[in-house]
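Final report, Chapter 2: Outcomes

The project's central promise was a pipeline that accepts a single protein chain and returns its three-dimensional structure in a standardized token representation, suitable for archiving and comparison. That pipeline is now operational. To close this chapter, we reproduce one record exactly as it appears in the project archive, with the input sequence first and the structure output second.
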Amino acid sequence: MDTGKPRPKRKAQQSRGQEQEQGRAQKRMHMHRNEATLERARAIDVVGLVEARSFEINALQRAIDSARAAGNSRAFQTLPRHLRRRAASHNAKRVPVRLRERAAAEIRKSAQTSGGQPAAAKRSNRYRRRRSRTVRGEYERRQAGRRWLETHVWHAKRMHMAERWGAMIAESPTERSHRAAYRAAREKTFVQDVSFFRTLEITGAVDAVVALLRRHAAPGCPVAPGRRAAPLTLHRAGRFPLGCLGPAVALWRPAASDNAQTRTVWLRLHPAHADAVAEELATDSKNVQVTDISTDLVSFELLGAQSTCVLAAVLGDSSDPALCGAETLRCIAGINSPAALGEGCVLALRINDPRLRFPRGLLHSPTPICADTAQLDAVLQHWPDTADNLGCDDAGLWDRARCAKDVDSRPSDKDLNERRRQSLVPGEGLQCLPGVDVTVPVIAVRSGPEALVGARVSGGGGSSDGLAHGWTLLAPRGWGMALWMALIFAGARAQGLRERVHAAFEAGLPSFPAHWPGTAAYDLWAAPIAADALLRWQRRPPGKRVNYRALGVQSPFFPPFHTFLGAAAPPVVYPRTGPAGLECSMRRLRRIHASAASKSEPAPAEELNVPTPDIWLLTGERMAGIVRAMLQAAPASDIEGGDGSAFERWARPLLDFVSPVTDALSLLSSCLVRVRLVCSGRGVPEDNAPVLNPCAGDAAVIIGYVMTGSFSLARGCGLGIGACSLRGLFALWCVSQPASASRKCPRVHIASLGGAPSADAVLSVLC
């Protein structure tokens, strides 16, 4: 046994085995490390990756959607609903600028045929061949035979337009605004474009002009030169009280800016009788020149409690604040109602271009109040004499040549918009630049009940709450739209002709020509309305319409004043009264409506100059006061009885005022007295309803007719404006009890056209 000696061969074998084992271990360790790395590589954070690449992913998605939609939709179809426009598929200008090039390319491509050639142009129709190439030319073509006001395009988008008296007039708003118009007239302001009114300029020696007006005006009308606008009732020369033409307003040129030997006066007339008045004055004038300057002026009528505030907001930017008119306007800007000022007051101003800055609305600006109460009291008591004068060297609105020159030399809207773009403060008004901008002469006239009735009225004419008080603004032609937009921005509510007539009705005042029977203008107004009402009644089935024959109604469509007074037939043909009128053929009614309506053209002069029928309307405050006194007078012993002599003795005060004639009884028998009827209980008056004497017993005695009747928002009851015969009022006076309230407030019955019970009403005489 060998001990103590090493065995090297086994040791070398063990070293090699250990090295191999270590290599295998390292290999296994490396494999395990690779497997762990692979496991970590397979665990991806999807949320983090998407959040980090959200912008690229969204852009890719949009690109995919756009590419998909490019082949299936047109350029205008890619727009949202609120940006799409009608006819955008063949008009590239109706799409935004960013898509306009693509839309034009699509339009060109769609216009080609299948072979790639351009499609043949369609043959133009007759309308396209005849139409104008410009918008202005098209507007001029459409105005043939009818005059457009300067605000026509603005009104045509918002109101129903009607052709009246040779002009296109705003009839009523397209929105429901019956009560809103009443509230505007009572509490705020509404404005109407009355540029369709006619203006006649009379120039000549003072004595000749005054004599001409005196021959045609009713007795008592102020015709002498003065500082205020004077109401007139015009008649044919030498025919008073017959031959009534209608109301007018006279405005004298200030003497300081006119020759002392020659004076000028303007007559503001309703277009319904302007032609007849112009021809009557032209045939009767000697050494006097009569000129129609209607197209040289624009005019607006403001009505309501805040009309003075609106006027001050629009005309406050005066070119010369030191003028008397500008100082007076600043002083009265804060009054609550224009009724506080005397009617007929005149303000002459020269303001800066109203396009430079628009006034702020009354709701957003405090109402200016005059700091000097003593000055305000002085203005309210005594209107300044120089408020209608701009100075010795400035004729203002009376100088039509300078007004026309200023309109031609004023900056264009494009230039003003460029100045606004260069302004540092957006929305700020522009400053008036001397030598660049022009000024506008205007005249503001305080209007009210006197202008409606054509005579001086005491105590407001019995109008309700100042509903008929406001201002009339006159300006040169060419400034209509600028002033109109300024009035609208100031807070005035735009209204039409129907709302203006309704405002006068709510005030209890008559309107021309609807409430002026006995004049040619009234016949031309009422006859087509009656024919149209009868046409509508005939179109209804017999079982669905009122049977007027069974109810005994003789004239349900118009007041038969001529038949009622036994006068000759009017120059304009009305439908016949009685059962024969209800059976009138529709062909004849259409002929009456077409010939008598005259809605598209003014009334011919020869038709207006036909002598008026032998009925006449009592007008003026003096004659109305005489009739009121006659109704309140106690019965005298020499008046008792109902014969003709008693009637003549009762009407002696009125006959003394009218020029004495040989046949006085016939003259008084053909007289109509305008009355206001206020219902004292239930019931609402209807148009054309008869007015009955309540004390006539079982027999219904007609004493007059209602011309306009409706429910009054101002009074909360039925209201009517009608006309009664003087003989009917005499019969009412005879049966009234002496020394009773019925003499001061006569009571009548208003019949119903539909068979309902009659309504009780209180009668009062209107001037």
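Archive annotation: Residues 597-613 have pLDDT under 50 and may be disordered.
This record, like all others produced under the grant, will remain available to the consortium after the project formally closes.
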